[in-house]
Design brief:
This protein is of the alpha/beta class. It contains twelve helices and nine strands. Strands 1, 2, 3, 4, 7, 8 and 9 form a seven-stranded mixed sheet that branches. The longest helix is centred in the last third of the chain and has 39 residues, at 298-336.
Amino acid sequence: MFRAPHFISTAFVAASCLLAAATGASAADFTAKIGHLESPAQSRHVFLEKVAKLVSERTGGAVEFQLFPQGQLGNQREMTEGVQLGVLQGTVSPAAFLGGFNPTVSILDIPFLYPADTDAAQKIRAGAFGTALLDSFAAKGVVGIALWPNGLKNFTSNKSLADLDSFKDQKFRVMNSKILIEQFNAVGASAIALPFGELYTSLQTGVVDGQENPLDTILRMKFFEVQKYLVLSEHGAMEDVALFNTDWWNSLPDSYREIIAQAFAEVVPELRTHKAAAVTAALEEIRASGIDIRELSADEKAKLRDIMYPKARAAYLERAGADGEALLGVYETAFSQN
């Protein structure tokens, strides 16, 4: 469980004032202030707006979602803590930022977790595996109600990635995750945990040779400017988790809770289409830069999964313990059925 912070940041003070102002303006029976990190133009916010509209309509205005994009309410840790403590009613967070809060969710760091077929992937996400993953947040003082897809990671490097052997002895930047480190160790590469804000300069100066990110992130952060090779591997799932404060959620009538959960699920098909369009547009712009682009074949993806999955799996079990083992069993059963 997160501990309450020992200090109050300037950003958090400003956010508290913003929340207070928003609270005074609401006439709904139930108001949820929901913070997240993406810009208003990105998929997460676009579809939160759609969910907010559906919820308002279907509850006759009794439930209002007030949305605060682009880190207006603090960084993700502050927002997650705020939801846990009841300062904030909800957040939609990248799962990758929640591993310290709930180690079980780090299963999403395992490479090639979902099938390549996006419909098959959604079946796993929306089935017993997704339910079990969301249920794992209950012990942390929050309610997980939705798992949204938010892209797939791809590899880039300043050294050739012409085949699987090319990964050997290369240095890749990763988030601070033993699972991701073992993913690269499995192919003979080394992984260095660096802050995201240092990545562009680290690629430019050769501190690391390469990195992994979704195509729209590679475009937005201009990583393609300081990389020579891009491999369309789609090896790592980027997922969003919708979390609500337990007390606020339990204060709602059952019918309202059902409406909210249904609204988050209902927009997923359109969300997937919106995200796919953003990825396609990003690839076209990256391609125009002249970077060398290679797409992994289905056979290469299968081989890479066979190499990476066992080490990443073992690292996950070491981190997540018995709860992780139980979730992994649910996942592997679901994966085997697709």
